């Protein structure tokens, strides 16, 4: 018998909605978010445009303030890009979970949120250098599909109850689990294909970079055996161990067959130079130590290689540099830029458009098909990898790092590093005869002297490895009769102009760290 007044009765057309548990909301959000992102990557991979994740990551890199970059390099070193990717995926994951929970009550929050993923990815993609409006499509399409799926996953639907005359409004857990499972599986599959395509692209590029360079250079670099006075740090850094620093999350899309770079701006005869042109030109080999401005005192963002390539001054002479030009400004295939004084291209130092590194074709990581190498200047103002363009211009134009707080001109500072303290015989850690050894550099001025001070005692001159080039580092070694106790070892170098490196400590920003590399060693009795 029905005692409830008819006016308060729930109308039979709107049965009560069974609420969806928050955990299912979160799961649905996660599945839909994963699908949106994975499909974005997938569509980008098959249409050969920048991946939305990489595009967003690159925008983050480009917009990060100086202290963020310093923090990232200090804490993650060359794994900073992996850290960024993990960061982006984590944020997307958390946002997806939250959007799913919100979508239980208001479905439009979920779909709008997933849609925003797409808008952000699309905006980032079209903003990347070399990408057109079409780069927006993968991200938007992926997000649209993700949003629709989220709606379907969490929307209450009429379910047919066996024997019921009405179909009550409800949410079917079974249907959710099946659709959700299929969504996650599709996301994993699409993401897997996207990653596989990217790996294939990179391995194709590596293969293209693996073709040996024709003929031998006009002058080859000879490295005398006595350049090395200790074993731990090779005089020539192998390609696989050479530090890598750049803003590129993924390698630029390079096709050597169509690749060329221009020399333009304030020149009389602009040039366009293809890979075959470069290979056909006179080439030289030079031993040049490359160094990153972010290298801390004692750090390892430095490497020495035998670079092979064409001298830039030969190309600039052909192009005819106008007297008003102040800066050699270069751009990479991924839109990175830097610039150095025109004077540096003509003051006798061997600025190179390099195509080879340590006897191999320039590796992809280090700028294949061609890069600039400028002796004596930090990489961030000079060493453009994946070269796309050289422009003669004034100082009004600013390279990538300049508006981000780094100096416009940045000669490498004289520095030295302790690499090893090793017992000559007997057990290490016990009193006895030791060698202290390391490297010192003052590119383009040359290293004249290295001195070591133990426990703030007098500076003792170290033995130096052969002087291979003013543009290369020198190894040094000092024998030390170590007594029991804790010791402090400091090193300093003097360049060939007679200037000794400063002991004043300065951080890498804005134009290179200074201070003596100092280490502590404990010797047992
Ligand atoms: N295209 C491109 N070239 C670049 C950079 C970059 O971010 N993009 N970074 C520069 C910096 S800061 C340094 S220290 C050197 C490092 O060269 P390597 O990675 O071959 O050691 O490359 C330079 N060339
Ligand atoms: Mo750098």
Structure report:
- This protein has helices at about 20-45, 50-65, 65-75, 80-105, 105-125, 135-155, 175-210, 275-280, 310-320, 340-345; strands at about 155-160, 170, 260-265, 270-275, 285-290, 300-310, 325-330, 335-340, 350-355, 360, 370-375, 385-395, 415-425, 430-440, 445-455, 460, 465, 475-480, 485-495, 515-525.
- The chain is of the alpha+beta class and about 525 residues long.
- Helix content is about 30%, strand content about 25%.
- It has 3 domains: about 20-160 and about 170-205, no CATH class; about 225-405, Oxidoreductase, molybdopterin-binding domain (Sulfite Oxidase, Chain A, domain 2, Alpha-Beta Complex); about 415-525, Immunoglobulin-like, CATH 2.60.40.650.
- It contains 10 helices and 20 strands.
- The structure holds the ligand Nc1nc2c(c(=O)[nH]1)N[C@H]1C(S)=C(S)[C@@H](COP(=O)(O)O)O[C@H]1N2 and molybdenum atom.
Output the helix-strand order.
HHHHHHEEHEEHEEHEEHEEEEEEEEEEEE
Backbone shape: globular
- CATH fold call of the largest domain: Sulfite Oxidase, Chain A, domain 2
Give the proportion of residues in helices.
25-40%
Poorly predicted runs of 5 or more residues? none
Largest sheet report: 5 strands, mixed
CATH superfamily of the largest domain: Oxidoreductase, molybdopterin-binding domain
Task: List the bound ligands.
Answer: ligand MTE, molybdenum atom
Mean pLDDT: 93
Helix and strand composition category: alpha+beta
**Any idea what the CATH architecture of the largest domain is?**
Alpha-Beta Complex
Note the total helix count: 10
The CATH class of the largest domain: Alpha Beta
Question: Number of domains in the coordinates?
Answer: 3
| Percent range for β-strand residues | 15-25%
Distance between the termini: 99 Å
Q: Which strand order does the major sheet show? A: 4-3-12-7-8
How many individual β-strands? Answer: 20
């Amino acid at each position: 018998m029905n005692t409830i007044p008819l006016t308060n009765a729930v109308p039979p057309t709107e049965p009560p909605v069974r609420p969806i548990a928050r955990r299912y909301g979160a799961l649905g959000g996660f599945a839909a978010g994963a699908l949106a992102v994975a499909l974005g990557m997938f569509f980008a991979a098959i249409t050969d445009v920048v991946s939305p994740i990489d595009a967003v990551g690159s925008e983050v890199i480009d917009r990060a303030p100086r202290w963020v970059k310093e923090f990232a390099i200090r804490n993650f070193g060359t794994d900073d890009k992996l850290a960024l990717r993990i960061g982006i995926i984590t944020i997307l994951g958390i946002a997806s979970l939250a959007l799913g929970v919100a979508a239980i009550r208001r479905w439009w929050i979920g779909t709008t949120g997933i849609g925003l993923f797409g808008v952000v990815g699309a905006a980032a993609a079209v903003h990347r250098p070399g990408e057109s409006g079409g780069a927006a499509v993968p991200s938007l399409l992926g997000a649209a599909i993700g949003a629709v799926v989220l709606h379907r996953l969490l929307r209450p639907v009429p379910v047919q109850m066996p024997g019921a005359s009405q179909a009550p409004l409800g949410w079917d857990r079974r249907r959710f689990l099946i659709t959700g499972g299929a969504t996650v599986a599709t996301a994993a599959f699409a993401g897997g294909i996207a990653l596989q395509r990217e790996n294939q692209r990179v391995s194709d590029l590596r293969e293209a970079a693996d073709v040996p360079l024709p003929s031998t250079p006009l002058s080859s670099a000879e490295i005398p055996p006595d350049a090395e006075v200790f074993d731990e740090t090779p005089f020539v850094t192998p390609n696989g161990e050479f530090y890598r620093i750049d803003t590129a999350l993924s390698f630029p899309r390079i096709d050597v067959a169509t690749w060329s770079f221009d020399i333009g701006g304030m020149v009389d005869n602009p040039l366009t130079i293809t890979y075959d042109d470069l290979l056909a030109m006179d080439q030289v080999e030079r031993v040049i130590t490359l160094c990153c401005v972010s290298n801390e005192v004692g750090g390892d963002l430095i490497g020495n290689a035998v670079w092979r390539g064409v001298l830039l001054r030969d190309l600039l002479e052909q192009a005819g540099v106008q007297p008003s030009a102040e800066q050699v400004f270069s751009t990479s295939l991924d839109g990175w830029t830097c610039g150095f004084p025109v004077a540096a291209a003509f003051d006798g130092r061997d600025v190179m458009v390099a195509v080879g590194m340590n006897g191999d074709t320039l590796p992809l990581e280090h700028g294949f098909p061609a890069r600039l190498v400028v002796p004596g200047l930090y990489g961030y103002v000079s060493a453009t990898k994946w070269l796309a363009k050289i422009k003669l211009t004034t100082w009004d134009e600013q390279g990538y790092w300049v508006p981000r707080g780094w100096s416009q001109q940045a000669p490498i500072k004289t520095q030295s590093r302790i690499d090893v303290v090793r017992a000559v015989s007997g057990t290490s850690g016990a009193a006895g005869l030791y060698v202290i050894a390391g490297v010192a550099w003052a590119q383009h001025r040359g290293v004249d002297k290295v001195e070591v001070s133990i426990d703030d005692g007098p500076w003792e001159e170290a033995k130096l490895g052969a002087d291979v080039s003013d543009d290369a580092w020198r190894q040094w070694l000092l024998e030390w009769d170590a007594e029991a106790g804790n010791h402090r070892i400091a090193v300093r170098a003097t360049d060939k102009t007679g200037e000794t490196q400063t002991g004043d400590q300065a951080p890498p920003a804005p134009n290179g760290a200074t201070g003596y590399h100092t280490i502590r060693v404990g010797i047992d009795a």
